[in-house]
Design a protein that fits this description.
By secondary structure, chain A is mostly helical. Helices cover 76% and strands 0% of the residues of chain A. In chain A, helix 4 crosses helix 12. Chain B folds into two domains: 168 residues, P-loop containing nucleotide triphosphate hydrolases (Rossmann fold, 3-Layer(aba) Sandwich), CATH 3.40.50.300; 67 residues, no CATH class. In chain B, strand 7, helix 5 and strand 8 form a beta-alpha-beta unit. The chains are: A mainly alpha, B alpha/beta.
């Protein structure tokens, strides 16, 4: 997604008497207006700078013991990475990525099938309607009973949350594919599987990626919760048990930064996938 | 080429066609015209096997039609292009579905893109093309698979007058070059007369019999300027009005 173009403020406020001659501009706005991608990164860097400045001020107000300043946390983060933090991040990453992939692999074909078969949709829709609004996190004790304390229950929890999101959007997207499009591709000799590959799946892909982008924050939040007990691996464990429980606040903040980076990283991956495979959406639909 | 044998078909509120017969010879070019809602598009969908008759049968090239034939090309009014694929990828679609080897596929696609003047916009998405260019892509996509039967459903009705005439001329040229059987549904009398050597004039439903106008002069670019063209248009117009009023 392109960031907003920075307005040429120098031009906007220059007095009429200067209209005849060239007006000097600062380099950044000139570059920004001619390169929207550069402007977008500039905006992100500015946002990061504001965030770090606010953190610094809060650290001074609250005191280092409660809220270490960004530099202290950064140093702790870099030191902690090879001493366990990196490994915990990888475990958390593995859990959330596997759950995400599984949810798409299971929910997307099911959503396509429901979207294509009104009879199956009529049968399954009431079930989805009833189970969709249930906060899936309350099912955690049940998952723990059935699947134990290991990875299976944690991955299943995240899977359940993403599964319903993907199922709903894929079903709706495949129902909204125009019949003329299907007719014209069928008339070229497409079999059912080819229709799924060349029509329904690409038609649903933007919706799948959007739903994942929307849900990735929730997935990470749930991951943090399910990792905070009954395990010895993952960022939830690292933050709550290894750091907060031992009053190692700088280390705790390093864990928080790692979890945030995990979320941002996943979001960026989804964003890149969307740009790579769904560029046509920005051009506009027919 | 096409044998429509005593078909009955309707969507629920009475049949559109009732014991309807029709026969089209190989290499002929037909246009189908009639009042709105008479079933022009439906007959095309029946020929494309996108609808199945409730009674009777449709035979194409001697085979009873049970599912869409790979040798039948269908061009729709709204182009039916994949919005997520470039013009080149859209033209390649039919060949890809037939698992055509990549080198041969690309050569065929390039040839048709050039033939229809789409070389410069080959990398564009359909949304970035004009209506005329989109319809050219749809035509290129259909012709790239070398069909023996070309079905067109009001293909030029949403285009401006100049582009419409340009594409009508293209169809005339393609008809001269190839030996395809062509059935084109239209609501434009001029288009029906310009492109169809035989014109099927459908009455209001339920349709048991239709009127056929022989129009052997069609199929050449010069026909549009001749007095006979206008006479034929008047004749078909009178017939369409008669068919419409007969039921009213």
């Amino acid at each position: 997604m392109r960031g907003p173009r920075l307005p040429g403020r120098v031009d906007a406020v220059r007095p009429a008497s200067q209209d005849a001659g060239p007006v000097p501009r600062t380099i950044a706005p000139a570059l920004a207006t001619s390169h929207p991608a550069f402007a977008s990164w500039l905006n992100r860097l500015a946002a990061l700078a504001v965030f770090l400045a606010a953190w610094e001020v809060l650290a001074i107000v609250a005191g280092q013991a409660t809220l270490p300043d960004p530099l202290t946390v950064l140093v702790t983060f870099v030191r902690a990475l090879p001493r366990g933090l990196g490994w915990h991040t990888m475990v958390s990453g593995y859990r959330v990525v596997l759950a995400t992939v599984l949810s798409v692999v299971v929910a997307a074909p099911l959503g396509l099938a429901l979207g294509q078969s009104p009879r199956w949709d009529r049968l399954v829709a009431p079930l989805v309607y009833l189970s969709y609004p249930i906060p899936k996190i309350v099912l955690l004790p049940i998952l723990l009973i059935f699947l134990g304390l290991g990875d299976a229950s944690k991955i299943s929890m995240i899977f359940l949350i993403l599964f319903f999101q993907v199922l709903m959007v894929v079903r709706d997207a495949s129902q909204s594919v125009r019949p003329e499009l299907v007719h014209s591709v069928r008339s070229l000799g497409a079999r059912r599987r080819q229709l799924l590959r060349y029509v329904y799946f690409p038609a649903c892909l933007p919706a799948i990626l959007t739903s994942l982008r929307v849900s990735v924050g929730t997935a990470i939040a749930v991951l943090f919760f399910v990792e905070s007990f009954g395990t010895t691996a993952g960022l939830g464990y690292y933050i709550i048990v290894e750091s907060w429980g031992r009053l190692a606040y700088a280390q705790m903040y390093a864990g928080v930064v790692a979890m945030s980076l995990l979320g941002v990283g996943l979001y960026i991956v989804l964003d890149v996938l969307q740009k790579r495979f769904c560029g046509w959406v920005d051009v506009g639909r027919l | 080429m096409i044998e429509v044998d005593r078909i009955t078909f309707g969507y629920g509120d009475g049949p559109l066609f009732h014991d309807f017969d029709w026969s089209v010879g190989a290499g002929e070019s037909w246009t189908v015209i009639g009042p709105s809602g008479c079933g022009k598009t439906t007959i095309l969908y029946l020929l494309a096997a996108l609808r199945k008759p409730q009674r009777g049968s449709v035979r194409i090239a001697g085979q009873e039609l049970r599912r869409p034939r790979r040798q039948t090309g269908l061009i729709l009014q709204d182009y039916g292009l994949l919005p997520w694929a470039s013009a080149r990828e859209n033209v390649a679609l039919g060949l890809r579905l037939r698992h055509e080897p990549a080198a041969r596929r690309e050569a065929t696609v390039t040839r048709w893109l050039e033939r229809l003047g789409l070389g410069e916009v080959a990398g564009h998405y359909p949304q970035q093309l004009s209506g005329g260019q989109r319809q050219r892509v749809a035509i290129a996509r259909t012709l790239a698979v070398d069909p023996d039967l070309l079905l067109m459903d009001e293909p030029f009705s949403s285009l401006d007058a100049l582009t419409r005439e340009e594409l009508q001329d293209l169809v005339v040229d393609l008809g001269i070059e190839g030996s395809m059987t062509v059935v084109l549904v239209t609501h434009s009398i001029e288009e029906a007369v310009y492109l169809g050597r035989r014109i099927l004039v459908l009455p209001s439903p339920p349709i048991e019999r239709a009127h056929i106008v022989a129009n052997p002069e069609a199929g050449s670019r010069s026909f549009r300027g001749q007095p006979l063209f206008h006479e034929r248009c008047s004749q078909v117009r009178a017939l369409v009005e008669e068919m419409r009023d007969a039921r009213a």
